[in-house]
Amino acid sequence: MAVLSRRSLPETQDLVIGVVSKIQKHGVYINLKEYGGLVGYCHISEVAGAWIRNIRNFVRLDQTVVAKVLRVQEGTRQVDLSLKRVSDGQKREKSLQYKRQN
How deeply is 11 buried, as exposed, middle or buried, from its count of CB atoms within 10 A (0-12, 13-18, 19+)? Predict the structure, then answer.
């Protein structure tokens, strides 16, 4: 029986699925489902393509989102994410792929 090895950190340009855990004025913290407890950060400039007056108009707590990995710092385990750089087609495809795995 083959054992699937999960990477401890995502790679740059990967699409990841997560749940919004904390909303701040400057950005959003997202728990990455595929990486067991790892938390990524999405700056307010990467939430939407439009000007944002209130970030809560674009995301809400416990919302499941698909994000693109912009940067990974292995030493600090910091993951920078973008919500605006993911197309609708990529969101659908990643969601289906995740559902098939689980």
Answer: exposed
Q: Is the pTM of this model over 0.70?
A: yes
Please name the residues in contact with 91: beta carbons below 8 A apart, sequence gap of 6 or more. Answer: 66
Closest CA to 38 of 76, 9, 75, 63: 9
CB atoms within 10 A of CB 55: 18
Which residues, 6+ apart, have CB-to-CB distance to 63 below 8 Å? 19, 20
Helix (H, G, I), strand (E, B) or coil at 23: strand
- 44 in Cβ contact with 59 (< 8 Å): no
Residue entry with tokens 């795995």:
101
In tens digits, the chain (102 residues) has pLDDT values of 233 335 789 999 999 999 999 999 999 999 999 998 899 999 999 999 999 999 999 999 999 999 999 999 999 999 999 999 999 999 999 999 999 987
